[in-house]
Specification:
The structure is a homodimer. With about 220 residues, the first copy, chain A, is of the alpha/beta class. Chain A has helices at about 15-25, 45-55, 65-70, 100-115, 135-150, 165-175, 180, 200-210, 215-220; strands spanning about 5-10, 30-35, 60-65, 120, 155. In chain A, helix 2 (about 45-55) links the parallel strand 2 (about 30-35) and strand 3.
């Protein structure tokens, strides 16, 4: 396979696992990473993404998106809003409408310019948050709109789509990505070492626990 | 009909016609306009959009998008690149990959927050530029991805999709939008009065000529 792949790299556990999945699938030297600076509350994610890309030896670019902050009213960009989990059928207040649609569309535009047609995203419909733009049917529809709208044949790879957190940890181990996990950021409260209390920390901890693998971020 | 509509308003002839189409269809007081400040070379478009919205008596918001300028390499945001028309089967160098996909996705996110499900865009597949994200099949696929990704039932209205420029001018007249046309901006060279030479000016002039209607922007 001579294709090159572009991985949307947030600096978290899932996208980092995807980066190593892409290296395994497409080969060293044929993978690039793209991070979005969209005004996330925890700037440490951007530093982590850069360190992870360097650790993995891949080209890395960061694109700004100032629009989400201007849209406002959500907890991931607005430091005045407390993070809460999903309650009942409501979307959690970390929901940014269409965030992954935007990320993947800009990633496709970036890839378009670079002659890359394979895009990799760490979205998972098993994710506890239930973001509707993480589901495979959404990704399929987006893939079609990108292909029609940019006249390319992109493939949107979502290797974690149906994996539990336990299985994602096991995949990371299989791919030799565990060392890189020490560089990732997960905590919704922006703590390093992680707070261990927020939903994101707990989800991560449970995944490592169930896989019977020590989290390098904790044990480091 | 009690729905409200959001019109993507660039400040040009087509989106202004759509604004009046929406006022006719949804009623005064039930239409809002959204403009994107994406680093366009001619800032005058943003002023025009504001004036048009004021003239039409609709709420108007402007959202920034700094990502296209960061993506670079295209003539609509990069003042170092000359504008050229499409040659043969090539896309014109004003092509920003996925620009309308991004505009409509952010418009949907904005509408989502405001409880609006009817979006209106002036895209037309008869447009000489041949942007693939202006075609109805792309819009249909995008509509599906937005509806799945944001769990709403958006309708993407494209009233100009199959109209020639002549027919768009006639529609503007029928809708009482001709006075507002004096406030629009079309010229790719950013001139007011328009240069009359660039492809956009010529397309506009031909439309008014074929419709047998004086362009208020020229005759003003």
């Amino acid at each position: 396979m001579t294709n090159r792949a572009l991985v949307v790299l947030s600096g978290g556990q899932d996208s980092t696992t995807c980066l190593y999945w892409a290296l395994d699938r497409f080969g060293a030297g044929r993978v690039e990473a793209l991070t979005f600076d969209y005004g996330q509350r925890h700037r440490i994610e951007l530093d982590c993404a850069g360190q992870i890309a360097k650790h993995a030896g891949v080209l890395h670019a960061t694109l700004p998106i100032d629009t989400f902050a201007a849209l406002g009213g959500n907890a991931l960009t607005d430091s005045g809003i407390a993070v809460e989990g999903a309650t009942g059928n409501d979307l959690p207040n970390t929901f940014v409408p269409g965030r992954n649609l935007i990320f993947l569309t800009f990633a496709a535009a970036f890839a378009w310019q670079r002659g890359i047609v394979d895009l990799v995203s760490g979205v998972a419909q098993t994710d506890y948050s239930g973001y509707p733009d993480c589901r495979r049917d959404t990704i399929d529809a987006l893939e079609q709109s990108l292909n029609l709208g940019m006249e390319r044949t992109f493939t949107l790879h979502t290797p974690l789509m149906n994996l539990s957190k336990k299985e994602t940890v096991e995949l990371a181990q299989d791919l030799g990505a565990l060392n890189a996990m020490a560089l990732t950021h997960t905590c919704y409260n922006g703590k390093r070492p992680p707070c261990g209390q927020c939903p994101a920390c707990q989800l991560r901890a449970n995944g490592f626990l169930e896989a019977g693998i020590a989290d390098p971020l904790i044990s480091a």
